[in-house]
Amino acid sequence: MEFDLQMVLVILASAVATYATRIGGYVLITTMKRIPPRMEAALNAVPAAVLTTIVAPAFFDGGWDSKLSLVVALIVGLKVSHTWMLVAAWLVVMGWRRTVGF
Amino acid sequence: MSRADFVEGLRGGFTVAVASAPFAALFGALAVDNGMSLSELMLMSATVYAGASQMVGIELFGNNVQAWLIVASILAVNFRHVLYSAAIARYVRHFTPLQKFFTFFLLVDPQFAEMVKRGEEGKPVTFIWYFGFGIIIYVPWVLVSLLGGLLGGFIGDPKALGLDILLPAYFLGIVLGFRNRSNFLPVALVSAVASAIAYHYVGSPWHVSLGAAAGITLAALLPLPGALKPEPENEPHEV
């Protein structure tokens, strides 16, 4: 067992910070009696808004291999399942890198 | 009944466990590459348990960034979880305090997405279902990250194996799962553009919070779905 004290402290602080975000919204919302409709509309937009921000840089800042791969994954995802999106994305990226290069 | 719920949870979570295994392995390999020991990377997977922010964390560890900045960055990447826990509040009110503790501890992206989907389909969101779904992702996540750390030396360049595309493609799949919601397209487009701009001018990980804020603000400002086809009983609620 190899532990560096400073790294362990940073990891545990990160864990506490993460847990705080995971319970924070619940604590905030239970202090309110009724959710206003606009806030509900905002909450309903959370998944699409947040998860998109994780994908966007890979598309905009990635090379043509990543861009093409994500477009193909998007088309596949509209037709079939998520697992096939991963397969399609991987095949396109590997195909591009083996033929065109990095 | 509860046993059937548990098994259903295990089944649903299993797909996620398989899909996230490459990322757990990749995290382990990159963690070792950035100077973490095997016990430290396992501690991180077991206590932080958040893929994207673990990746951000080790990247900063490797670059000797100050401790407070690492924690702040992890907080920024995970800030979306505040919104998740607010959004699932309606489903967990009947859980006991201990059940709530585990519910929020296990609240990762796919877990959140699946819980909302299940709730909206009108199926019962029981703790035992949630726990089954979560534990089948959590245990492999910790173990496979250790495996990745052990094999780290053999993985080499993640790009040569095409691993780097799997994370965005995976998140893209989750996003598509929400495409039938009202305002999905404008929200997703605005978040995408805003986060790309923030990524360029402010930098990672702030693009997550800033991009999401843009999309959520837009959703709050757009005409409400109820306002488009007004029903008499809705009118008293309008402010």
Explain the overall architecture.
- The complex is a heterodimer of chains A (102) and B (239).
- Chain A has 102 residues and is an all-alpha fold.
- Chain A has a domain at 50-101.
- Chain A is 82% helix and 0% strand.
- Chain A is flat and about 55 Å long.
- The two termini of chain A are 39 Å apart.
- The relative contact order of chain A is 0.06.
- In chain B, helix 1 (2-33) packs parallel to helix 3 and helix 2 packs antiparallel against helix 9 (127-155).
- Chain B is built from 13 helices and no strands.
- Chains A and B meet through helix 1, helix 2, helix 3 and helix 4 of A and helix 2, helix 3, helix 4, helix 5 and helix 7 of B.
Describe the secondary-structure layout.
The complex is a heterodimer of chains A (102) and B (239).
Chain A: H1 5-30, H2 37-60, H3 64-79, H4 82-99
Chain B: H1 2-33, H2 38-47, H3 51-62, H4 67-77, H5 80-87, H6 89-92, H7 97-105, H8 109-120, H9 127-155, H10 166-176, H11 184-201, H12 206-221, H13 225-228
Helix pairs in contact in B: 1-2, 1-3, 1-9, 2-9, 3-4, 11-12
